[in-house]
Amino acid sequence: MTPKIFICVALAAMVPPAFGADKPETPHLAFVTEYVRELGAIEIIRAAGEQEQAEGKQAEVFSNAIHTSTLFQLELGSQIRVLKDMILRPPFDDLTKNLVGFYAKKMELYQRMIDISTAFIGSPKPGVDYDKMAAEMPKIRASLEFVERALFEATPLIFATLIDQRADSKNHASHLIITKAERTKLLDDIAARFGSKLDQKGQNFTVSAASVLQGYLQKNFRCSDEPWE
After folding, report:
1. Which DSSP letter does residue 170 get?
2. How many Å apart are CA 64 and CA 194, to the nearest integer?
3. Are 86 and 34 in contact (CB under 8 A)?
4. How would you write 10-57 as a 3-class SS string?
5. Model confidence at 128: pLDDT above 60
6. Average per-residue pLDDT in the chain?
7. Comparing 17 with 104, which gets the higher pLDDT?
8. How far is CA 218 from the centre of its chain?
9. What percent of the chain has pLDDT above 90?
10. What is d(CA 82, CA 97) in angstroms, rounded to the nearest whole number?
11. Domain ranges of the chain
12. β-sheet bridge partners, residue 176
């Protein structure tokens, strides 16, 4: 994804301001490691919610939706707090803010899901347009998919924070800023959180983002403790 697309989508997600500029820069490895953790946490909730719906009764559909949406909100809120405390310098200075904007938008959409699901629980209430709310649900899911796709498309930029910007003798950016041991640990973390899902076809955007990170880490980049040409 090009930076232009990323910035446009981020603006559409209404990025909140108020990020401190006086703090020291967050180590890029810490940032990427946190992002992998965030992807894993979201996938755990998604998979559990899907299983809950599959095993639940029809009458429990809306209560299950409230449960899963609330878990998403709690996790996203925690992730926002962590990212707001992270500082990246140019050319990545807007990255954490953009991610927070995406997460905040997802929280809004999950809240609307909770509101609609709550309205459907219990006896019908006068003056409530249930048909209109039912028709809104697929629109909410489409909006969530749009945001998740944007997050997936931002993954190359997230990986780029690990690339050493210094050129080698061929004028290529061929090294990462992390050691071989650090790269191995990051790959092990991705594998531990996603397992066989990384090899499945038809991955959702969260698993696909993890797969993209894994693929870039396995490409022909040398690590910081490997010889330069």
Report:
1. T
2. 24
3. yes
4. HHHCCCCCCCCCCCCCCCHHHHHHHHHHHHHHHHHHHHHHHHHHHHCC
5. yes
6. 89
7. 104
8. 21
9. 78
10. 11
11. 3-10+25-217
12. 163
Q: 83-87 long-range contacts, Cβ below 8 Å, gap at least 24?
A: 83/34, 84/18, 84/19, 85/23, 86/26, 86/30, 86/31, 86/34, 87/19, 87/20, 87/21, 87/23, 87/24, 87/25, 87/26
Per-residue pLDDT, 56? 74
Q: Which amino acid makes up residue 71?
A: L
pLDDT of residue 13: 40
Instruction: Give strand pairing partners of 175.
Output: 222
User: How does pLDDT run across 170-199, given as a tens digit for each residue?
Assistant: 888 899 999 999 999 999 999 999 999 999
The model's pLDDT over 37-88, given as tens digits with 9 standing for 90+, comes to 999 999 999 999 999 988 877 668 899 999 999 999 999 999 999 999 999 9
The model carries a pTM of: 0.86
**Helix segments in the chain, DSSP class H:** 3-12, 28-55, 61-84, 95-120, 130-153, 155-160, 180-194, 205-217
Q: Cα separation of 182 and 46, whole Å?
A: 28
What count of residues does the chain have? 229
DSSP secondary structure letter of residue 166: S
